[in-house]
Amino acid sequence: MPMYDDPRILRAIAHPTRNRILAELHASGPIRAADIARMLDIPANQASFHLRQLAKYELVEEAPEQARDKRDRVWRLTAADGINFRTQDMLDQPGGQAAWEVFRSNAVAWGHFLVDQALTAPDPDNRRSLSDSALRLTQDEASELMEDLGAVLQRWRARTQGSDDERTTYSIYQMIQPYPERPEGD
């Protein structure tokens, strides 16, 4: 999995539409700009613009072998396993701290939104799950757990990728961290 340290890349993926495009490509595999536009309910030219911005930073690329003809543009992730940052290396660069703050702010807002939706949105078909678990682990065990969960997700991704209109993209939001202390007053 490639590691990135360019603050401009972090700022580019902090944009909610671009982040969602990356999520759809990760979930679906190669996909047409028009299909992304339909999935995100945005104009096709807007989807194309965001894809070009992601391509500028080599996060996505065209997949010409998937195209029906020369005018058909199909896109794929350049790193099928996802995007990882060398955070400290990025923070040490000019603009790194500002890019991190933009990304962090958007990630916090997205996390709040996901939890809020899981707890408040009507779910008559019981398609949502929110769990909060605690385990006692060593650092090595925590790393092993993260690898195991990643392998489970990768197995399911391989099993379900493709353009199947019966499938809906699900968000799987997980955190593994030492149990945080609550600030005083909470």
Explain what this protein looks like in three dimensions.
This protein has 186 residues and is mainly alpha-helical. Helix 1 (7-14) packs parallel to helix 6 (96-120) and helix 3 packs across helix 4. The chain is globular. The protein is built from 7 helices and 5 strands. The longest helix has 25 residues, at 96-120. The protein has one domain (3-160): Arc Repressor Mutant, subunit A (Orthogonal Bundle). Strands 2-4-3 form a 3-stranded antiparallel beta sheet. Helix content is 51%, strand content 7%. The mean pLDDT is 88. The chain has helices spanning 7-14, 16-28, 33-40, 44-56, 87-91, 96-120, 139-160; strands at 3-4, 31-32, 60-62, 74-77, 84-85.
Summed up, what is this model?
This is Helix-turn-helix domain-containing protein. With 186 residues, the protein is mainly α.
Q: How many structural domains in the coordinates?
A: 1
Number of strands: 5
> What overall geometry do the principal axes of the alpha carbons give?
globular
CATH architecture: Orthogonal Bundle
What percent of the residues sit in helical stretches (DSSP H or I)?
40-55%
Secondary-structure-derived class: mainly alpha
Strand content range: 5-15%
Largest sheet: 3 strands, antiparallel
How far do the termini sit from each other? 39 Å
Task: Trace the largest sheet across and list its strands.
Answer: 2-4-3
Overall average pLDDT: 88
Weakly predicted, low-confidence segments: none
Radius of gyration: 18 Å
Tally of individual helices: 7
Could you give me the name of the CATH homologous superfamily? Winged helix-like DNA-binding domain superfamily/Winged helix DNA-binding domain
Order of helices and strands: EHHEHHEEEHHH
The CATH class name reads: Mainly Alpha
